[in-house]
Amino acid sequence: MYEISTKNYFPAFKIKDQFRYKAYHSGNFKDLRQVRERLTEAQIRDIKIVSQVLPFRTNNFVVNELIDWDNPFEDPIFILNFPQKEMLSEHHYNLLASALNRKVQDKELNHIIRKIVSELNPHPGGQIDKNTPEMEGIKLNGIQHKYKETLLIFPKQGQTCHAYCTFCFRWPQFIADGSLKMETDNINMVVRYLMNHPEITDILFTGGDPLIMRTKVLENYINRILDLNLPNLISFRFGTKTLTYWPFRFLTDSDADELLRLFEKIIHRGYHLSIMAHFNHYKELRNNYVVKAIKRVQSTGALIRTQSPILNHINAEKDIWEIMLKEQTELKLIPYYMFLPRDTGAREYFKVPLVKAWMIYREAIKNVSGLSRTIRGPVMSSHFGKILFLGVSEIYDKLVSVFTMIQGRNEDWVNKPFFAEYCENAGWIDEIKPAFGEDKFFFQLNQ
Q1: Minimum mean pLDDT among 3-12, 106-115, 193-202, 400-409: which range?
Q2: 77-86, 174-183, 257-266, 421-430: lowest mean pLDDT where?
Q3: Between helices 41-50 and 90-101, what is the axis angle to 10°?
Q4: Record: fold of 124-351+362-370
Q5: Could you report how far apart the first and last alpha carbons of the chain are, in Å?
Q6: Is the pLDDT reported for residue 2 higher than 50?
Q7: Interior/surface letters 362-389, b for 16+ CB within 10 angstroms, e for the rest
Q8: pLDDT at residue 4 above 60?
């Protein structure tokens, strides 16, 4: 039987008073001294307008420790947290601005917001229609089973974050429309599904951010799964931005040590534990609190793997990725994925064409060690699967784009190369055509 650890984790330190958690959002961000001093009334109004559609939440740690307020509109962390006017199309922005200027009734304003939300493709990649499994004829909202080995769990108590990323492809989790949310607190349903699906080897807790939950709540989910003693289960993963947005979750929150002990318990039971950490810029790694939090997590035996989209206005430069990969490896983090921003939300603002993303990736990994080249990219997490862009080649004097699948909705698609016509500006799978005169890619047949 597992006993509670008395291990002395990498030592924490007393929290500063100013880092007791405080959220800022569309209703109170004007209270920030930095906002009043550094932003114009027009810029503040833009944030208010865009945040009617795109979720907006930041906190005092991000504001005081990570953002360069001397030049906020060039600062990647500011752009990552504060909605920008250009994140909506001119048409959508003007619709909202006009409605607010006219001081329309809430009913009309909500109708306009819902219409814009629906036009921003709130659930890309078949998340609701294709990824939600059924059991006994009932759709199981709150879990996804797209790839046979991996089950995604969306715990209801973890469907928010310490701060919201403006590029987030799960932004509908944070808006008022409950019909767009994926969440569950029915652990009995999860347990029954796991028992009926022995092909599942990996469990990924996601959100939102599951590590925003109190440890006792998270532990309820974990213990029920551990109690199953499933012979097929190999690993647990937590998708999280907490290391960047609130490192005190691992340092000095009242149940920080309990969370680390939970990590240790999972490992003690023989499972692989990966913290799937989102780092979007090397600036996020250069904070003493973040580094301390990383070391405390690592002291439990958990591995930290890193991932990020490649994002216009934030990190679409080869030097940023080269520095970020080197510093992640120095911190004993494992680079995992460079994603393309999904076709949802503010995607046009953040979009990086496939060819440009590949060139940035290629140039960045030229100057890093093999330990940093564990990162795979650029990757589209599409309806069909995780599609890796291998680059541009020349066949019969013609440029073609070369792809393969890291994961596929159909397992027979994995690692099967395919070719597309070269298109310099294409940014997603639906913007490219098969090479050599074919009508469809092999994975589009019978769709």
Answers
A1: 3-12
A2: 174-183
A3: 100
A4: TIM Barrel (3.20.20)
A5: 49
A6: no
A7: eebbeebeeebeebbbbbbbbbbbbbbb
A8: no
The answer on pLDDT for 318 being more than 60 is yes
Specify the pTM.
0.94
Sorted by sequence, the CB contacts under 8 Å of residue 356 that are 6+ apart come out as 316
Instruction: Indicate the burial class of 330 (C-beta count within 10 angstroms; 0-12, 13-18, 19 or more).
Output: exposed
Q: Which has the closest alpha carbon to 432: 394, 402, 397?
A: 402
SS3 26: coil
Render the burial of 70-87: b for 16+ CB within 10 Å, e for the rest. Answer: eebeebbbbbbbbbbbeb
Closest CA to 414 of 134, 196, 146: 146
The answer to whether residues 255 and 214 touch, using CB atoms and an 8 Å cutoff, is yes
- What would the 3-class secondary structure string for 249-299 be? HCCCCCCHHHHHHHHHHHHHCCCEEEEEEECCCHHHHCCHHHHHHHHHHHC
Return the structure tokens found at 370.
């093999």
- The answer to whether 166 and 79 have CB atoms below 8 angstroms apart is yes
The answer on pLDDT for 199 being more than 60 is: yes
- Tell how strand 134-135 and strand 138-139 pair up: antiparallel
Q: Are the CB atoms for 315 and 308 separated by under 8 Å? A: yes
Report the SS3 class of residue 131: coil
Contact 175, 110 (CB under 8 A): no
What stretch of H or E contains 349? helix 347-350
Q: Delimit the domains of the chain by residue range.
A: 17-119, 124-351+362-370
Q: Are 51 and 16 in contact (CB under 8 A)?
A: no
Q: What is the 8-class DSSP label of residue 62?
A: I
CA distance 124 to 128: 9
Which residue reads 């793997």 in tokens?
Answer: 305
